[in-house]
Amino acid sequence: MSPLELFRRNQKVTMTFLILLAMFAFVVLPTVSEYMQRSGPGMTDPVLAEFNGVSLTASRVNGFTQKHYATVQYLRKLAEETIRRGGTPKVPGFTFDQQSNQIQSVGINGSPSDDMSIRTLQFAAEAQEQGFALDDTSLDIWMEQFTDGKLSEREMFALLRRETNNQMGQYQLYDMLRKQLLANLYLRGASATVARGQFPLQSPLDHWNNFLKLNQKATINAYGVLVDDYVAETDANPSESEVVAVYEAGKDRYPNDQSPEPGFRRRETASFEYVLGELQAFRDAEVAKLSEEEIKAEYERRKAGGAFQLPADVVILPETTEPESPAPEMTEPETTEPAETTPPAEPADSEPADSAPAAEEAKEMKEEPTDEPPAENTPAADNSESAEDTQAAQQEQVEAFSKELEEAGDLDDATPDTDDQSTIDPDHNGVRLVVMQSDVSTETASSQQDEESATEPETTEPETAAEPETSAEETATEEMEAAEPEPRYRPFEEVRDQIAQTMVDGPAREARDQAIAKLRNVMRKYSRARAIYGDGTDATTPPPERPNLKALAEELGLSYRKIGPFDPVALADEPIADSVEESTALTQRGVPFAAMMFGVEGQVIKQELFTPATTVDLESQRTYLSWKTEEKEAYTPELDEVRDEVVAAIRFAQARELAKQAAEAMAETANGGTSLEELVPEDRQENYFKDLGPFSWLNMVGFGSFTIGNIRELDSIDEDFMKTVFNADGAKHVVAPNGPERVYYVIKRTSLQPATSDLRAIFSQQSERIMAMFMSDGTAGKVQQGFFETIDEKTGFEQYQLPQ
């Protein structure tokens, strides 16, 4: 064998070895690793569910859930790349929102959870038993349709390895897709025969009943009989058998104040430390650093730019309690203008802001037109002329000017001689237009100027023709500017705080963010050191020193609080619960603080102890920096721990019967002719409500979404309460409990509107009954629940609580 042939043979052997190694790494190794992890020494692997004799252990279910999550994320990335290359995934169930540019669904279930994993494995097995199958060729076609032919097979699986950190290869992906698609196919096939999507097929009578629930409105009188009032009449020492029975029924149920069934299981709890950076506090600190001169300078700068200007019709009252005397100059300044040598003796603040400039303009215009002394009929020459005479003279001049304009129009139509332009001079018409807009003194002076112009020889015509038009326009502009009032501004004292706050907004935000960042670094350093230190089994290594957040917060201008232990329900009353994770704050799906701390199965990973988290409340401009200091997992307590709660639940159930009997007795008495209002005890008048409503059985809160009609005065009413009210005989008193059965209401319906005939007329219009047609009465859900129960019975399905 030649050296070249030997080299080629060795090369083939090497390539074959590399291919086998790659297959081992991407197919066999993850499975072996998973098996080793779940069956290592000291590991417990409880069974979560069983069906068809198959046990689903916690490790198998958890591993399936993790692969489901990784598959969903990979398909999202694959869809984004397909869209980026100009394609569109064409598989059933894929949806893309064009407005938000977000992928809504990738074609398989997008909510991984352990419960969903159990059901997926169960339904996929049932689908295969009934003859459904998906081979690799079918999945190849599905993937090609998903990528719209824009990515090669090599590119698809290279992206898969990168997105899953080499934890999934083609085998794992196809196994997951096969189970998800088969389970979905089986579930849709079963649902198609019982429901039209999520809305069941309904009869016209169902539509009419739904229409009444939305459009018929009732008014009632109601008195609430409180169950709490009868607890004292119950047995304080129930039998042990009754205690055990109630405990067993509710030990695995969480307490719910909206349910009549007692629950004793303990929710997960946690305690927290957090520091709070309030933007307003940092603004106030920065404002304190500003001098009064800096704020005034900023006021003047903004004022010069047009800020703080008041509208012309806004009147600023002076800071005095004395009434302001009327100023006649504000309405007719031209008729009361005194002689130039006798200025008015009134205070300066009684004049409008624009009186002085207007007077000065008028003075200049009176002195400009001629060197001759003023005529006898001007105000400067004859101060004894009354305002009425002046107005009459002004009116005569306007009428005379109007007449001249008409004559000028006639002459223009007659095509006047071009040699004689002194009679009809357009320039003089311009001057007369100014006369109409000026005050009396200016009009008079202009009239004198017109008379002089008429007697001047024609040799002066070029001079008067060259200048009067421009002069008139300038005069008109000056006159209009003089008529405009000077702008007025808000006083400095009124806007001082506003200016100061806006001056420091940027520095305040920067100071707050720097304080939060500095403390976050300290917390992160401790968190890393604590993780390295571990569980403390190594006695030679001292534990890291926990930082004093309270002292650091005071040093940095932050607030400090220590809260807990709280479960997720109790935590909702704390202000920090209104904050969301910082990086998601500006999105519509910000992760709430409680979800971060306690986790959401399959969606949000629970925050570890002493791991700093930054959350923000944009509405209140607050930034929180927190960590969890203690936590306790949810658990089922022993009977001795919750014995008092069990006894209280038994006594409350007994008190319900007594309250119900009392309410029914009161209703019977009222039906006998006694007014309900008269039967209400004096010390319970606050529980009697008169003329509540009108309210409907259901309220629409969105297309296809409905809630129980809102009666704010009553406590937690439900569907059964509404059914009792709307189906009652209007002449009778009836009894109905609220949802949690802690109040029994005695009810008298006093009104039911509109009339049935009117409702039928409205219902006859298709557009008016469309909402009733889209209302679900729960039938589809009940049928599907029955389907699940049938499958569970057929497969011998059992699901167990995860041990704590």
Automatic annotation (TrEMBL):
Biased composition (Acidic residues): 407-422, 449-484
Chain spans, region Disordered: 321-491
UniProt superkingdom: Bacteria
UniProt biased composition (Polar residues): 380-397, 438-448
Transmembrane segments: none
Secretion signal, residue range per the UniProt entry: none
Feature: compositional bias, Low complexity: 321-330
Identification of the protein by name: Periplasmic folding chaperone
Native organism: Stieleria magnilauensis
